[in-house]
Design brief:
Shape: globular
Largest sheet: 6 strands, mixed
Order of helices and strands: EEHEEHEEHEEHHEHEHHHH
Radius of gyration: 19 Å
Helix content: 40-55%
Distance between the termini: 36 Å
Number of helices: 10
CATH topology of the largest domain: 2-enoyl-CoA Hydratase, Chain A, domain 1
Strand content: 15-25%
CATH superfamily of the largest domain: 2-enoyl-CoA Hydratase, Chain A, domain 1
C-alpha cells in the first residue's frame, strides 16, 4: 500500500508512503485512505485512538497533490465523480471526533494542501512550501480548497492565493494562520506527538463538543452558533469527565478523565 497506518500510545499515525512521486494522491491512494479512516474510526470506537497524525514519507514532500496523469482524458461524469471522491474522503477526516494534525515537511500542493486543510491543525517545518496551483493548469481546487482555505485565512487572502496559484513559504503560512505552529526542523512524527500531547490529557467528550461547537458555529450565524454552544455546553456538564474535572479542581489534584 502507498499509505501506512500504525496505532500506538492512543495515537493513529497515517503516513503517505510514495516518496518517489512526492507522495502524490492517485485515486487508488484516496481509496486506501478511505479504508484507513475506517480503521481509525473503529480504533476511536474501541478507545484505542485519541488523536491522528498525518505525515509524508521522505524529505521532500508531505504531498505534492493529485496524480496529474490520472486527470487527463476523463469524461465530464468522471471528472465530477473524481472531485466527489476526494471531497468525501477529506470530509471524513474533518469529521473525526478526535484532534487531527498534518505535519508539513516539504511540499504540500493542491490535493496535498487540501488534505492538510481537512485536519484540525497544521504544523510546518522551515522547509515547508504550500499552495493551490490548480489555476496554472486551467483548473481550480476540487477537494475542498476553495471552501476550507477562506474559512481559515479569510476570503481576501484565500482568493489571492487560489487565483495566483503562487507558492507560500512556511513563515508566511504561519503569519496568515495557515500553520498553527512553525518549527525549524525535526522528525515529523515526533513533532505531531509533541503538538497533540496537551490535548491527549483532556477527556474526549469535551474535545469533541468543543470541536463541534466551533465547526458548526462557523457555518451559521452568531446567534445560531451561540445556541449550538449552549446546547453542547449543557451536554458536557452531563458527562462523568465533567464531574471528575470539577472535583479534581476543587481538590487541587490532576483530573483522571475516562472519556465518559
Amino acid at each position: 500500500m502507498s499509505i501506512e497506518l500504525s496505532i500506538r500510545d492512543q495515537l493513529g499515525f497515517v503516513r503517505l508512503d510514495r516518496p518517489e512521486a512526492l507522495n502524490a494522491l492517485s485515486f487508488a491512494i484516496l481509496d486506501q485512505l478511505g479504508a484507513i479512516i475506517d480503521q481509525i474510526e473503529a480504533g476511536i470506537e474501541a478507545g484505542q485512538v485519541r488523536g491522528v497524525i498525518f505525515t509524508g514519507a521522505g524529505n521532500k514532500a508531505f504531498c505534492a497533490g493529485a496524480d496529474i496523469t490520472e486527470l487527463i482524458g476523463r469524461s465530464t461524469l468522471q471528472e465530477h465523480a473524481g472531485a466527489g471522491i476526494g471531497q468525501a474522503v477529506f470530509s471524513r477526516i474533518a469529521a473525526l471526533p478526535v484532534p487531527t494534525v498534518s505535519v508539513i515537511h516539504g511540499y504540500a500542493f493542491g490535493g496535498g494542501l487540501e488534505l492538510a486543510l481537512a485536519c484540525n491543525f497544521r504544523i510546518g517545518t522551515a522547509k515547508a512550501k504550500m499552495g493551490l496551483p490548480e489555476v496554472k493548469l486551467g483548473l481550480i481546487p476540487g477537494y475542498g480548497g476553495t471552501q476550507r482555505l477562506p474559512r481559515l485565512v479569510g476570503e481576501g487572502r484565500a482568493l489571492e492565493i487560489i487565483m495566483s496559484g503562487r507558492t507560500i513559504d512556511a513563515s508566511e503560512a504561519e503569519r496568515i494562520g495557515l500553520l498553527n505552529s512553525l518549527v525549524d526542523d525535526g522528525d515529523p512524527t515526533a513533532l505531531g506527538v509533541q503538538f497533540l500531547g496537551p490535548m491527549l490529557k483532556q477527556g474526549l467528550p469535551a474535545l469533541e463538543f468543543a470541536k463541534q461547537a466551533v465547526i458548526r458555529g462557523m457555518q451559521t450565524t452568531l446567534e445560531e452558533g451561540l445556541r449550538i454552544e449552549r446546547d453542547l455546553s449543557t451536554l458536557a456538564y452531563q458527562t462523568a469527565d465533567a464531574k471528575e474535572g470539577m472535583q479534581a479542581f476543587l481538590g487541587k489534584r490532576p483530573a483522571q478523565f475516562k472519556d465518559q
